[in-house]
## 1
Amino acid sequence: MPGLLEGKNALILGVANRWSLAFAIARAFRREGAEVVLTYQGERQRATVEDLADELGAAAVLACDVTSDENLDRLAADLKSSPGRLDCVVHSIAFANREDLARPFLETSRSGYLLAQEISSYSLVAVARAAAPLMRSGGSIITLSYLGASRVVPNYNVMGVAKAALEASVRYLASDLGPKNIRVNAISAGPVKTASARGIKDFSKVLSGVAQKAPLRRNTDPGEVADAAVFLASELGRGVTGNVLFVDAGFQVMGL
Ligand code: NAD
């Protein structure tokens, strides 16, 4: 049986290591027959991401720091020469200063606030603008969000505000790109132990709280997030745009 993403070319930003949600998504995309191009943020990540790309049989590995317009322009130019056409883009990128994920939100500095917004929210707009011209047959852009966008989660702070802006950006981009049959959605994942998550103070308490209270009484598996991304990237998701899909063992429906 052909895979759900057979014949599709996907760009996946945000693999730092094998625990990255982007890596789980890349693996699921390969399983479903997609060709994938991975990016790495900087030289420090290069060797790791190249090894993971080999393991997956990725078509290419390209450099891209999303704070650099020059990097984004070069990425678009490289993708234009190969693979030439994109069908899916996965934006799995976020960053905030560690101190802003530990002290009261009230103490957030102007520079820390702007940094979190630039990398975790604006970059989706910049990436969508770079990729959309290559999505000539339509396509699917997927980003990763978290419940902290709409609820107060201890220590998530400035990142919650960035995720709120990210989710609003999903809706505006969906409106702009819908006429080109490009769909834009977010997956709001339950907490998963990754390098980024470890930067949040008392993250292990969040994990144990979710496992106790979520309707499914467990935490989220990265493979579940990846399979939701397959759905959104595939023809099965063709009617879905501007949405935030929760893949969180149901935690978000609970009151107390
Ligand atoms: P991760 O640390 O593996 O991935 C974060 C990625 O962001 C890394 O690859 C890093 O290199 C990249 N990045 C940061 N700054 C960048 C820049 N300037 N240019 C390019 N790339 C940059 O952690 P993850 O948990 O897999 O995070 C992926 C996404 O999932 C993030 O948006 C995160 O907020 C979101 N998310 C994570 C969880 C969780 O609990 N782990 C839950 C919900 C949503």
## 2
Amino acid sequence: MDGLVCFEIRGDVAVITMNNPPVNALTTGVPQGVAEAVERACNDAAVRAIVVIGGGRTFAAGADINEFVRYAAGQGPWPVFHRWLNGIEDATKPVVMAIHGQAFGAGLELAMAGHYRVIATDAQVGQPEVKIGLIPGAAGTVRLPRLAGVRKAAEMCAFGEPLSAKSALDAGIVDRVVDGDLLESALAFARTASGPRRTRDLPITPDPTAIAELRTRCKKHLEAPLAAIEAIEKASALSFEDGCRAEAEIFRRLMQSDQCKSLIYAFFAERAVAKVPGIDKDTPIFPIREAGVIGAGTMGGGIAMALANAGLRVRLKDTEQAAVDRGLAAIRKNYERSVKSGRTTAEAVTERMSRITPQVNYAGFDSVDIIIEAVFESLTLKKQVFSEIDTIAKPDCILASNTSTLDLDEIAAVTTRPHMVIGTHFFSPANVMRLLEIVRGRETAKPVIATAMALAKSIKKVGVVVGNGFGFVGNRLVIPYMNEAQFLVEEGATPEQVDRVLTEFGMAMGPFAVADLSGLDVFWRIRQEKPRVPGARETLGLPKLYELGRYGQKTGAGWFHYGDDRKAKPDPEVVELVHRIACESGIAQRNITDAEILDRCIFALVNEGAKVLEECVASRAVDIDVIYLTGYGFPAHRGGPMFYADTVGLPHVLARVREFGWTPAALLEQLKPFHS
Ligand code: NAI
């Protein structure tokens, strides 16, 4: 037996411990090791029962996804679990699975191959495979409905949400919830357990009503949830063996699907961006314990919350008391909402609020470790603020700007320490959105970049390092995307058609709903600042709506109309207005297909993304993908704009880009996949 699994005998019970840190992922050797240890225990006359437990912090968090990936790429054997799990279930002595931490995915499938399960009060069980576009592949869809019933099993496999220990007990997945020492409780349980009780022998009752109901709850554009329900429906009508065969067939089908490949890519992509080219892991990191935030507006308030939530002390400065009071009131209101919704407790909020010191001067800014500036988007103002803080801050204090468009190098140039200046571009609402674009200036020092990445992680954000260029990466790409959406309306589409096509593709919101939420005034201002490209087509609708005071949700009308419920309603007046001004400008009106809408909007992102790569504003396609996945509601099952382009094929993307009359990025013309 190898080191992945340990075997010992405690009195008359064999204890088998999985030992594959950090989370006991079930790499091929682990289930095999457990099965062999179970066999050994069965052959030992001194043993009356068996306990299987996870070493370290968890039972088993799932299979090793890399093994599936290698298999799907034809580089490795299919990880066969059934044989080992069946071997465990066949044991002639009672096998008790002792669960702490998590029994997720293959971890739960292993646990269900045991005869009994005891679980620690704070542990969880679940079948989250659907989140990477798969279904359970080691008889989870066949054993789980035998324990929990078809409805519960289908719900767990289709939506992937975990169950608490108590819910797992209520569902019949585990036999006992135990407080205190898990191993001792499992040993006591094992000593009194009657003979083996095999999950596969339990009866299963089909439940067509539940199946039909759950199908209606699935998002239509996602394959895996419906496939999970299909597998469980089949399992409920077939023998155990045939159910396993049906599951395997569906699993293999999904494994080859674009959705699964995209979701697995998205899963690993966040880890990939954490490794920044040129910044090795020995780069020194400055400790960040206290921060100063300048500007207590929308962003400054959210940034202060994000920092305070992670335990940092924050000095929040604005120009006058009224502004600070407003900012603090907004923070309090925000926190109160999260208490009301049960996301946090009143005590936690009191503690977090106590970490934020509101002020109208720079008192204490000489000792903070980082200063994040979030004043109005004005270069003159930002330069003034940076020259002020440069004289106050301690020498190793990082000076960060939250600018969304301005030139970081120009800001850094007014200081005596451009190497300590960096961009930390948060997304609104800053306490919620996971993305943090970390803008590297011409002179930003490596330890400053490494520190910003570490800070992102500690405040639970996904830091992505980008270069200094108008709009950096996220907003740079969003401009052609939003423009294309508007051009389509000028040519005959409607905002609701465009938004429908993109939400059906999987975007969290359509471009017009986004514009109305962020404010058309904001987009209008960005347009004023953006350097003009001679001869480039300009949108016609935006300035007109801005002129009419239709700023979006905040004024009750923008591209859509908003009633008291703040739900978007189509506004025929807007459509008529835009079509009329388009006609006056000589733009012909025609019927626009959904396919054209999709390709023009998404390939606008791709073409601009390729330019951003060429210019080294983004260093890797994965950085662009993660920015879009975490900051712009791009669907994970498409992998991100650049991964999606590779999926549909660059020759097709290039052909469409030419058809639309755009200038293709040189990198796109090379037709070399962005991820190779
Ligand atoms: P805001 O208008 O809500 O807040 C700006 C605050 O800065 C105001 O409270 C103002 O009184 C204060 N301020 C102005 N001059 C100051 C000074 N000298 N010292 C201290 N405080 C001063 O603006 P918002 O939306 O929070 O934007 C701030 C920055 O964040 C801008 O650079 C903006 O481009 C950027 N940003 C905004 C996003 C958004 O969605 N609102 C998203 C990402 C970045």
